[in-house]
TrEMBL record:
Species lineage: Eukaryota, Metazoa, Ecdysozoa, Nematoda, Chromadorea
Alphabetical keyword list: ATP-binding, Magnesium, Membrane, Metal-binding, Nucleotide-binding, Phosphoprotein, Translocase, Transmembrane, Transmembrane helix
Example GO BP: intracellular calcium ion homeostasis
Originating organism: Gongylonema pulchrum
All residue ranges annotated as the Cation-transporting P-type ATPase N-terminal domain in the record: 146-207
Protein name (record): Cation-transporting ATPase
């Protein structure tokens, strides 16, 4: 069961035993220009600080606003971990018809659908209630009569298409990051940036041998970290990816065999 508490700018979402705190932000062009100017004049150091501190990055590029117009949300969990997620929007047109799940295991068409994704879980914006709702708390109170109706007729193709648009395919997709991205993310961590600064000082003071050893150890450490990360990503993807052939009912037609991902 999900619980919601919110004001115009912030909200608290409780799903089960976990709580998330949300704050709405909208990109401020003036702040964005100033941020890029500071980044250029500091040779990227300021941008690096913003990467290390997400809350500071949000304050330097965005302004507070109500959640109903926010184009990004700052999220804090119970362990004080911070993350910033963009609010995306599906707009009806060109064969795409967004829909919101409503009580009774039904979908209602909307002209646009705002949402953000956090830890691979989509949170939908309900404009009438002015709140974000995680999709795992939707359609929990379904009557047995509705199940009997579905067992007799199945879902229509239109409803299946709408549900695929909102919920996505029935799979957990683990994307592998490119090697150069993993290398870059490792390199810009505070520890390795400090190592880079230290090595530069040692080379300047003519400690070439000692500095060279540190460089070699750093390269080896980054390589091993990237190797372990890629290995864990592949292992996780192989564990969560599975599919099978299942039977479904569609619009009163005889049962059809399809892939479970669909």
């Amino acid at each position: 069961m999900a619980m919601f508490m919110q004001t115009a700018h912030s909200a608290r979402i409780t799903v089960g035993d976990e709580s998330l705190y949300l704050w709405g932000f909208k990109v401020n062009r003036v702040k964005m220009v100033l941020t890029w100017l500071f980044t250029v004049f500091s040779f990227g150091i300021f941008r690096l600080l913003l990467y290390w501190y997400p809350k500071l990055r949000v304050k330097c590029t965005s302004s507070k606003c109500s959640l109903n117009i926010a184009d990004g949300v700052l999220i804090q969990d119970e362990h004080m971990n911070l993350a910033f997620r963009p609010v995306r929007c599906m707009i009806a047109g060109a064969g795409l018809q967004p829909a919101l799940p409503i009580p009774g295991f039904r979908m209602t068409d909307v002209s646009s659908l705002r949402y953000f994704t956090y830890k691979k879980l989509m949170h939908l914006w309900y404009p009438d209630e002015e709140r974000f709702v995680p999709i795992d708390s939707l359609e929990t109170d379904i009557s047995f009569l509705r199940f009997h109706d579905m067992a007799a007729n199945g879902l229509s193709k239109d409803e299946v298409r709408k549900r695929l648009t909102v919920y996505g395919k029935n799979l957990i997709e683990v994307k592998l990051k490119p090697i150069f991205v993993l290398l870059f993310l490792e390199f810009i961590s505070p520890f390795y940036i400090f190592q880079l600064f230290s090595v530069s000082v040692w080379f300047t003071d003519e400690y070439e041998i000692y500095a060279s050893v540190i460089v070699a150890m750093t390269v080896l450490s980054i390589t091993l970290d990237v190797y372990q990360t890629r290995k864990q990503e592949k292992k996780l993807r192989s564990m969560v990816h599975s599919s099978a052939i299942v039977q479904v009912l569609r619009e009163g037609s005889p049962p059809a065999n399809i892939c479970s991902e669909e």
